[in-house]
Specification:
This protein is about 60% helix and about 10% strand. It is of the alpha/beta class and about 725 residues long. A hairpin with a 5-residue loop joins strand 2 and strand 3. The chain is elongated and about 190 Å long.
Length: about 725
């Protein structure tokens, strides 16, 4: 995108850029000159969200996060803008204007058309809706009429919201409310009524939610309490039914008894083994005759000892089964003493072999025998008691599982109950406190605001100017027409030999222009441009003499270029032959009225028209008709005849048909040395034209370039305009 080209477009439309914004400014001035002054009223509401000094026992002591604070303020301001709150203000304003002798606004046509009964009905309905905090239903014809009445007075919610501003001041705890109106009392009333209705509505919502929360937690608390009581009752019934006092204490006692009995069993077993080994060792020290003597002598003593031992064993079993109660221990000790005395009396008798002094060993054996028997008896009793205790412990296991499950359920129910109880107490406490919202600054009738009339006028002019720029830019961006030589060269990648302006005036005489009779500034620049094109073509010809001038389509200006090119060559003393090769549209023939004709020259049937170069410019026309060059003569003869003309003329300029005539144009290209093509500015290179351009590129140096015709004077720099 060429910025300089866009600037040129703006310069061409400079009057549009001036007149449209100027007209917009004038229209805006007349529209806003009677605009009434505006008054702004402000109020301030403290929320208690971030101000800790306003916190009460009902509020949490935890600091809120920034996102939570922003959300809280957003919710409050959304409620203030809600239709339910704004409608309350609308009702009050409408009731005031219907009942007051000094309404805030001039009555609308709808209000003026209402009679007294209609006004009374409207006041009654608005009052009812205000007290009940109801919104108007547009499905009801009567309520729709009330809504239209509000809209006619600009008291409806949409109209009020357009002039209402609600915002939080930075990170403070305050919400600011502003309203702009044409009446200072109206602006103050709207702000104060809005703050009051908002606080009342929000307090009502909070209280209703708190009551709902208290009732909900009360019902939930009762349900949790009933659940806890049922589970406690079920556990109690189970313990009574299964005679379970305290499983943990019972299990602890059984484990202690088992541990004690296990220790005593190990001790009794150890004692039995030790006493048995000692008895066997004593028996080894007696020979068989001594043993028979001792055993025969101690029959009666042993019988008494056996009886006492049986009593001792029975008492010992009772002592073990009673879990070693002290009263049973006394009996065991008593029988032990009796047995000891019996053993002592037996040792006093001379029942041993007089020949052997083994009295002391016999006493030890008797004592050890008794201890051995007691140890064996104790082991059996302890084993039976261990088995009984294990059975009792096994019986406790299923009770333990049931009781633990019930106790776990009771603990969960108790935790839930306590949690709900805490929440219930918290909600009940919160319900006793008032809402923290309060209006700390009331709105007062404000002073008139600076007039925005001039600002609106300036903005209208700036906006219209920017809009014009935008439209011109879009048109420029979407415009892909060829307007300058540079654009043509960039689009086709083919050199541009020059360009021509469109001469002003409906008609002009080229002979007068080139002879100097019409020596205007425009004509001077035109001739300079034409001489520049002639020089570029002469350079590209490089000694060749036959130049073909054509175009992509009709009415591009090839006839105009051919004629002026002939004049330009004649100005530098060249002998010029101009041939009109377009049989379909012989424009050169019509413009010049030539002496010679192409058909006669090619057929050579009229020797009276033999060409000579008496003047600077010789013209050869044609008689027209729907024919082509090769229909008149063969290609070789045409080349020979044109080569013969090279000896007579310095330059031969041929205007051929446009390339869209297909073979008629291409036949002339075969007969020429160089080709220059004229393109009219202001057109796009569409697909069918690109086909002709590709054909020209394929001529292998025969095509020397473009000449851009009818270029707008503002499209090229001044230094390139001749």
């Amino acid at each position: 995108m060429d910025l300089s080209s866009f600037v040129k477009v703006l310069l061409r439309h400079k009057y549009t850029l001036i007149l449209i914004p100027l007209a917009t400014v004038i229209i805006t001035f007349f529209l806003v000159r009677n605009q009434p002054d505006s008054y702004l009223s402000n109020a301030q509401i403290a929320t208690g969200i971030v101000d800790q000094s306003l916190k009460t026992l009902s509020a949490s002591s935890d600091m809120l996060q920034d996102a939570q604070v922003s959300q809280e303020f957003g919710n409050l301001m959304a409620i203030m803008r809600s239709k339910k709150v704004i409608d309350q203000v609308s009702y009050q304003l409408m009731i005031h204007d219907l009942t007051s002798n000094k309404p805030f606004r001039k009555p609308s046509k709808t209000l003026e058309s209402m009679n007294a009964s209609a006004r009374a009905h409207a006041v009654e309905r608005f009052t009812t809706f205000y007290k009940n905090r109801q919104t108007l239903s547009l499905f009801d014809p009567d309520q729709r009429g009330l809504h239209d009445l509000l809209g006619s007075m600009k008291y409806d919610d949409q109209s009020l919201l357009q002039k209402l501003t609600i915002y939080r001041d930075g990170n403070s705890d305050f919400i600011f409310v502003q309203f702009e109106a044409e009446d200072p009392n109206l602006s103050a009333k709207v702000v104060n009524d809005l703050c009051r209705e908002f606080i009342a509505y929000y307090s009502l919502l909070v209280k209703q939610n708190q009551i709902k929360a208290v009732n909900f937690y009360a019902d939930l608390l009762k349900a949790k309490e009933d659940t806890l009581n049922r589970r406690l009752e079920r556990l109690k019934d189970y313990k009574i039914r299964n005679k379970v006092l305290s499983l943990s204490e019972q299990a602890k006692s059984l484990y202690a008894q088992l541990s004690d009995f296990e220790t005593r069993r190990q001790q009794a077993s150890k004692d039995a083994i030790a006493y048995k080994a000692a008895i066997d060792d004593i028996d080894k020290q007696f020979d068989p005759s001594d043993r028979r003597y001792v055993e025969s002598s101690m029959v009666r003593l042993n019988q008494r000892l056996i009886a006492t031992r049986a009593q001792l064993e029975s008492a010992n079993n009772d002592y073990i089964e009673s879990s070693f109660k002290p009263e049973y221990k006394q009996r065991v000790d008593s029988l032990t003493n009796v047995m000891s005395s019996q053993i002592g009396r037996a040792s006093d008798k001379y029942i041993t072999n007089p020949m052997v002094a083994k009295q002391n060993l016999i006493e030890q054996k008797l004592t050890m025998q008794i201890q051995y028997d007691l140890a064996k008896s104790s082991s059996r009793s302890i084993e039976r008691e261990l088995a009984r205790l294990n059975v009792k412990l096994t019986e406790l296991v299923p009770h333990e599982a049931v009781v633990q499950a019930d106790e776990s359920a009771i603990q969960i129910a108790q935790d839930e109950y306590m949690d709900i109880l805490n929440k219930y107490n918290q909600k009940q406490l919160e319900s006793t406190f008032s809402v923290l919202l309060r209006q700390i600054e009331s709105a007062m009738p404000g002073a008139a605001q600076p007039s925005k009339k001039m600002l609106l006028v300036i903005i209208s002019g700036v906006v219209s100017f920017i809009f014009c720029l935008l439209v011109l830019f879009v048109l420029f961006y979407l415009d892909n027409t060829i307007k300058t030589p540079r654009e043509l060269a960039n689009a086709t990648k083919i050199p541009v030999l020059g360009f021509l302006f469109k001469l002003s005036g409906a008609s002009f005489d080229l002979g007068h222009i080139w002879s100097g009779k019409d020596n205007t500034e425009e004509h001077r620049k035109f001739k300079n441009l034409m001489q520049s094109i002639r020089f570029e073509i002469d350079t590209e010809m490089n000694g060749s003499k036959i130049l073909l001038v054509n175009s992509l389509a009709q009415d591009e200006g090839k006839t105009f270029l051919a004629l002026n090119l002939a004049y330009a060559y004649s100005q530098v003393n060249k002998k010029v032959l101009l041939i009109d090769g377009d049989f379909t549209r012989p424009d050169v023939t019509k413009a010049v009225n030539p002496q010679y004709y192409l058909e006669d020259f090619l057929l050579r049937n009229a020797t009276d028209y033999e060409l000579n170069a008496n003047g600077k410019i010789t013209t050869m026309g044609n008689r027209g008709g729907d024919i082509s060059l090769l229909q008149i003569d063969s290609e070789s003869d045409i080349r020979n005849k044109l080569n013969a003309l090279k000896a007579v003329f310095d330059i031969i300029i041929i205007e051929s048909p446009a390339l869209n005539s297909l073979n008629k144009a291409k036949e002339w290209i075969v007969a020429s040395d160089k080709v220059v093509t004229v393109l009219k500015a202001g057109q796009t290179l569409k697909e069918h034209k690109n086909l002709h351009i590709n054909y020209l590129k394929g001529l292998n140096g025969q095509f020397i370039g473009w000449v851009l015709n009818e270029v707008a004077k503002g499209q090229v720099p001044a230094d390139q305009q001749g």
